[in-house]
Amino acid sequence: MSKRPQQSAGKSILTFLRNNTVPLMFILICAVCIPISGFSPEYLLNEIITRLGRNAFLILSLLIPIMAGMGLNFGMTLGAMAGELALIFVSDWQIWGIPGVILAMIVSIPISVVLGLICGKILNMAKGREMITSYIISFFINGVYQLIVLYLMGSLIPIAHGSIKLPRGYGIRNTVSLLNMRQCIDNLLAIRIGTVKIPALTILIIIFMCLLIVWFRRTKLGQDMRAVGQDMQVARDAGIKVERTRIISIVISTVLAGFGMILYLQNIGNLSTYSAHSQVGMFCIAALLVGGASVDRASIGNVFLGVILFHTMFIVAPQAGAKITGDSMIGEYFRVFVSYGVITMALIMYEMKKRRQKGTTGELLALAQKEEEKHEQQA
Amino acid sequence: MKEKLTSFIASFGLPRLIITAFLLSLFILAPIVGVDLPMQITNVINRFSWNAVLVLAMVPMVHSGCGLNFGLPLGIISGLLGATLSLEFGFTGPMSFVMAVVISTPFAIVLGLGYGALLNRIKGGEMMIATYVGFSSVSFMCMMWLLLPYHKADMVWGLAGKGLRTTISLEGYYDKVLSNFLQINIGKVSIPTGALLLFALLAFGMWAFLHTKTGTAMTAVGSNPTFAQAAGIKVDKIRMLSVVMSTWLAAIGILVYEQGFGFIQLYMAPFYMALPAVSAILIGGATVNKATIMNVILGTFLFQGIVTMTPTVMNSVIHTDMSEVIRVIASNGMILYALTRKTEVSK
Lengths: 379, 347
Known about the structure:
Chain A is 74% helix and 3% strand. By secondary structure, chain A is mainly α. Chain B is mostly helical.
């Protein structure tokens, strides 16, 4: 950049600033809050790496629907619920450790696929408002999930083990202990540098997933999805089955979210049966947006930058808030506010951009129509 | 005959039919399983009177084509500001309710104007952004409730002497001021006349407004913005007006809710308050771009009927309380049904 002429460098810095407002703002927040919070660098680094391993896979599941032009998939909660159901079954069968995790992933696939198909079908009926619809779907399926876990498990669906059942004989307890598979993947091949633990295997899995996504983008299906995301009508004219492609993108996202949730929970070590999934969608989407993604464009780089920045803020905000105002709740509320604020800003920016584009394409269309009319008159 | 029936089902909507049938069966089942029916009817009427104004707040924005107002929490926050300030300034009894309405009005107008200006810039994506405007404003106010200099002893935390409590009792203030006004008791059934009267007044006002010149213009903007623009209606201005009206009604709505409930709920309480109101008006027969006063009345009655009746009746029948799950599935299912209808022209 230093070799470029002065003027264009200034200009490119300005566009860089404009395109990366959210990440830069977060770097600023973190830069202010880290010294105030008084955490040691080792502690902070350790926490960030833990959270990177915990959350990155979940956030990766959001990329494919964005590619297919379906916006932020609030329906990833469905995958999270599928993952939880699988974990409940696996812990009932008392299969622990890495085999347990792998089996849970396998069990989660059919559940995720069914939920993904339902979600995709409904979203195809609500084109143009996918996000609000997927958001309500997550609430709706949450109701169904509660019905299954709280009333049907143990009464209709056989649950053998008493330790995860409610005392009344059916329904699952509020927390299911996953102590026997806690961090089994993280600890295998873990590298320790001083006090910092690097869960190498988890990170390898995440890197493998990234490569898979890069590869997927180049396949025929990936190209089709991109085309559908650009313009549905054009894609349809080109012979792409638009509805089918959209459903596939949601199914893939749901399955990945299910895997992500299982990885997330094996790190945490216990499953809050009725609340673990409720905030997952919001935090993942906020993290992705903090990394500089928008509703119609997201890269793997956004995922990692987002996890690091968002979770640094998440770790330091309560402590920094307590130091500044003397009330720890302020920091808690602040980070919640920032999460929602970031999503709100990103949605507003996206809609405004879309409107501007629509304005210009509208004008072009009108021009083209006039031309056509002229031709018709001449004929 | 069969044709008539199918066309009736098509116009009424299958989910709505199921919900109505479900509520009817609850009413029939109640005396059989030994539930105190008059008591239940009183509950349903009471809850209707608490919630009806919040549901009414949906109407103006639906009419002007802004869709369902998922940003209802913004109006609720103006109401909460009015309520807490009225108490802080030392008003008591019925006067505190009047002052709460008076104080919340400017907040509702200012917030509504800002919210309306925002929604005018993002036409087509209103509902998602409204949801998140609601969420951000609630979480922002969580900080404010702690930081704003409130001092009244029965509102702040006892030990710290600052920061508002999560729930504030309204005893001695405006607890049940409307419900007890001209209350009618018929046997065991008691009717909260005051609250119903206020709702009737507001609903009539809304009905009358929709028949004025501005009101007709609002409907025109909602049904065909391009046509409205061509007819010389200032579309953005009308949309703005509808958003301000909706926000103000939400502020009044939460005050009416509080007087019935007896407590002010702060912090995360307003977070999900939009969803019951949205699903209530949809159950009443409204769509994403069409809503009448009748939809409001019917919808609130059906929704609150199910919320009140299910726990007691279900408890006596199968000895487990599945009401929460049924409420979640029914109300969100209703919203999904409305969102997937192809009635709205995409803008």
